[in-house]
UniProtKB/TrEMBL annotation:
Gene3D superfamilies referenced in this protein's UniProt entry, alphabetically: Aspartate Aminotransferase, domain 1, Type I PLP-dependent aspartate aminotransferase-like (Major domain)
Gene name for this UniProt entry: csd
Protein known as: Csd protein
InterPro entries: Aminotrans_V_dom, Aminotrans_V_PyrdxlP_BS, PyrdxlP-dep_Trfase, PyrdxlP-dep_Trfase_major, PyrdxlP-dep_Trfase_small
Cofactors named for this entry: pyridoxal 5'-phosphate
Keyword Hydrolase appears in the UniProt entry: no
Xref: Pfam families: Aminotran_5
Origin species: Symbiodinium pilosum (Dinoflagellate)
Family as reported in the entry's similarity comment: Belongs to the class-V pyridoxal-phosphate-dependent aminotransferase family.
Record keywords: Pyridoxal phosphate
Occurrences of domain Aminotransferase class V (ranges): 3-392
Length: 407
């Protein structure tokens, strides 16, 4: 029940990694890498899943690394805008703070609606009010780490594209859990990870970088106007660029400018299989099965006296939110008067061999949320079933009842 943290690895992923390690053991690492060509295979499968070209995919060691490589290739200067919402992931938010301090970029925290959905109208108002010479990046976390709300990425992307802003989508909790088409959501960059919903190896991630937004090298420097925000990657080597003359280099024309020479081929072999499995299972089927199990979990948790679900505000109503749905992330906490901490519940579940995660106090731009208690996060996927949901609910009921009896 921890797909949002680290899913169990399927046999075909495990076997692909072992097979590559055997190749390395018998042939040597370089020969094995050339024979397997796992990096290119993983790029191709990631492109199939996201609906883009393989040359728009860069492989990285994590979703956070992929996101950072995109963000730090933005050539901020004083007067540029960083637009995000209070729901932004903490790892991204601190990068915004750094950029606003170092480059004097203007950081604008847009409001959330009372129902937990990002306020798209507020984004439109800011984009319309910006000076014509201003440059902006719009950043959105598609699904928060502790929330079940799937934010309206397509609506955000359409506005960003209309007003010439760069759209950076954190799809870490989306890829592998729900269908995602990077063309349909109009993002310029999107990141994903292997270890969560995809059931791939830890230490793998990938970046989608839209070809049209990448500036190209010319003999006179980058081919870009002063109004374009995307620049060179912050780190390069002789794979991300070509060393053309003693004092000159040329950027890779595609997303490989965000890669470095060293890579883990065995992990890429596993990632390739994980991506292929997700495609075979059909992301739409995965989303439907996982969301169905999440509904059962919420229903069961609601029947336990002293437990409260908290993965969406009470005001959220999926029926009246056109195109905005809930996913398979379920978070809950015990009522404060019971004295049961989320840490206690997590540890008690672990003793019963039930894997869950802890969502610590929200590190967001809302100061009042910093003092909130941690919550327990459940995240079922297609490989779980109803009997496992029943077992989890029964275990939580027994943990709460046992704690009450001991007081």
């Amino acid at each position: 029940m921890n797909a949002a943290g680290a899913s169990p690895m399927p046999d075909q992923v495990h076997q692909a990694m072992l097979a590559h390690f055997e190749l390395e053991r018998h042939m040597g690492a370089y020969a094995a890498e050339a024979l397997a060509n796992a990096r290119e295979g993983a790029r191709l499968e990631a492109a199939r899943l996201l609906g883009c070209d393989a040359n728009e995919i860069a492989l990285t060691e994590s979703a956070q690394s992929a996101w950072a490589r995109a963000f730090y290739s933005l050539s901020f200067k004083e007067g540029d805008w960083i637009l995000c919402w209070a729901s932004e992931y903490a790892g991204n938010a601190v990068a915004f703070l750094q950029a606003s301090t170092q480059h004097k970029a203007r950081l604008e925290i847009l409001p959330m609606r009372p129902d937990g959905v990002v306020d798209v109208y507020a984004l439109e108002c800011v984009l319309k009010s910006m000076p014509k010479t201003s440059r902006a990046v719009v950043a959105l976390t598609h699904i928060q780490t502790n929330s079940s709300i799937v934010q309206p990425a397509a609506a955000v992307g359409a506005l960003a594209r209309k007003h010439g802003a760069v759209f950076l989508l954190d799809a870490c909790q989306s890829v592998g859990q729900i269908p995602i088409d990077v063309r349909a959501v109009s993002c310029d960059f999107a990141c994903g990870t292997g270890r969560k919903w995809l059931r791939g190896p830890r230490g793998t991630g990938f970046l989608y970088a839209r070809s049209a937004v990448l500036p190209q090298s010319t003999p006179h420097g980058l081919q870009r106007s002063e109004l374009e925000l995307v620049g060179e990657p912050s780190m390069i080597d002789h794979v991300s660029v070509s060393w053309t003359q003693r004092s000159a280099y040329k950027l890779s024309p595609n997303a490989r400018r965000y890669e470095m020479w060293e890579s883990p081929p065995a992990l890429h072999a596993g990632l390739k299989e994980a991506l292929a499995l997700c495609i075979r299972m059909d992301p739409q089927h995965i989303a439907q099965k996982a969301s169905y199990l999440a509904v059962l979990l919420r229903r069961g948790l609601a029947s336990i006296d002293g437990i409260r679900c908290c993965d969406a505000p009470e005001q959220f109503n999926e029926a009246i939110n056109d195109g905005i749905s809930r996913c398979a992330i379920v978070t809950f906490e015990a009522f404060s008067n019971l004295g049961i901490t989320s840490e206690f519940v997590r540890d008690a579940l672990a003793e019963r061999r039930i894997a869950v995660s802890l969502s610590p106090p929200s590190h967001t731009f809302n100061d009042e949320e910093w003092c909130l208690p941690s919550t327990v996060r459940l995240s079922p996927s297609y490989y779980n079933d109803e009997s496992e949901v029943d077992a989890v609910i029964q275990a939580i009921q027994e943990i709460v009842s046992s704690f009450k009896a001991s007081q």
